[in-house]
């Protein structure tokens, strides 16, 4: 839901009572231009901290004449949104930072910028442009506001440049700014090649950045002021970059998964949902979806239809992005014994559990939750084969129940599945440890 927009007119809620989109756009442009000139003259938010509070203040100053919600981020109204990239001949969605994480990410980027002394000590426009493009891309990816992100960032970076002894003229090649910044968000080239994605933005900064005259500006540019990041990005920004890479790698992986999906696009659609869950909650999302996503990567890599270099590269990129998000593995690893499934009779309740699971699978599919349905079906098949409910299979059951129990039409089926699962686990405990597969690697959801 877009709580910034009047549902009756399709126009942003505004102080002026305007109900025509083009009229509001022009009025907003005129008013914000006057306020932008005030900021350039030194009237407005001041200081050397460029965090969430600072960007809110800049946005409020620019749009205070037009919007009641000036200075409010997408978080206040719970607005996520997806925008198409402004790149000729390319259809790629741009997923911005989760609205729940806006302040956290702005503060993380602002803190790292401060550690780098707000880009002071960079002696040439090219040196300034390289780091300015990097930070502009990070702030832009957060995309904190429903409207006015471009003007807010231009005002912010004009001030950052001024404090660093430079002037940036965003009007000189204004029509090239949106495509350049969108390339950074889409991230076609992947981890290790981010410089390629930022090349257009970096060149734009370099062409339109000039040194300011005067002793203060010269002092700001003096190399003695430089504070390069000796160890690379801070831990907080490094995690942001890892999450961005995972989200950027998802569209190509979606296409590959759709090619091996016997249920057409259900698992491909679920993949994006799972990736965005991880983006919102890295620890919880990885615990819930990480193993299933890695298994999808292996399926695609091994599928004979996708042995061409491009497909293998995209699958490897997505897999590497997932692996980068995983916590370090302890150094001491004990080799697992080969899988040995029980030869004794299945625990009582196995058939009842499988039947109950299939009922919930059907219900979830009908209600539009193909991801949990598919995971539950694979878990049920694995339990039917191994007679063991635990590990990744138990996790898939829990995920499906979380969804199903919120849907009144599935309440009874969900209760039956929960009861059947408990009965099966009690039967497993009664039979003893022999019912558990010796190798957890062999126990995961069956394909």
From TrEMBL:
<keyword id="KW-0808">Transferase</keyword>
<keyword id="KW-0547">Nucleotide-binding</keyword>
<feature type="region of interest" description="Disordered">
    <location>
        <begin position="417"/>
        <end position="447"/>
    </location>
</feature>
<dbReference type="GO" id="GO:0051302">
    <property type="term" value="P:regulation of cell division"/>
</dbReference>
<dbReference type="GO" id="GO:0005524">
    <property type="term" value="F:ATP binding"/>
</dbReference>
<dbReference type="GO" id="GO:0070733">
    <property type="term" value="F:AMPylase activity"/>
</dbReference>
<feature type="region of interest" description="Disordered">
    <location>
        <begin position="209"/>
        <end position="233"/>
    </location>
</feature>
<dbReference type="Pfam" id="PF02661">
    <property type="entry name" value="Fic"/>
</dbReference>
<dbReference type="InterPro" id="IPR003812">
    <property type="entry name" value="Fido"/>
</dbReference>
<keyword id="KW-0548">Nucleotidyltransferase</keyword>
<protein>
    <recommendedName>
        <fullName>protein adenylyltransferase</fullName>
        <ecNumber>2.7.7.108</ecNumber>
    </recommendedName>
</protein>
<keyword id="KW-0067">ATP-binding</keyword>
<dbReference type="InterPro" id="IPR036597">
    <property type="entry name" value="Fido-like_dom_sf"/>
</dbReference>
<feature type="domain" description="Fido">
    <location>
        <begin position="50"/>
        <end position="207"/>
    </location>
</feature>
